[in-house]
Amino acid sequence: MVEDRVQRRLAAILAADVVGYSRLMGADEEGTLARLKAHRNYVLDPKITEHCGRIVKTTGDGLLAEFASVVDALRCAVEIQRAMAERNANVPQAQQIEFRIGLNVGDIIIDAGDIFGDGVNIAARLEPLAEPGGICVSARVQEDARGKLDLVFDDMGEQHLKNIAWPVRACRVRLDGERTGTALPSAPSAPPSKASIAVLAFTNMSGDADQEYFSDGISEDIITDLAKLSELRVVARNSSFVFKGEAVSIPEIGRTLGVRYVLEGSVRKYGARVRVTAQLIDSTTGGHVWAERFDRDLSDIFAVQDDLTQKIVYALKVRLTADERGRRISKRTIEPGGVADPALGQEQLQPDHHGYLA
Question: Do 195-347 and 7-174 fall under one CATH topology?
Answer without folding.
Answer: no
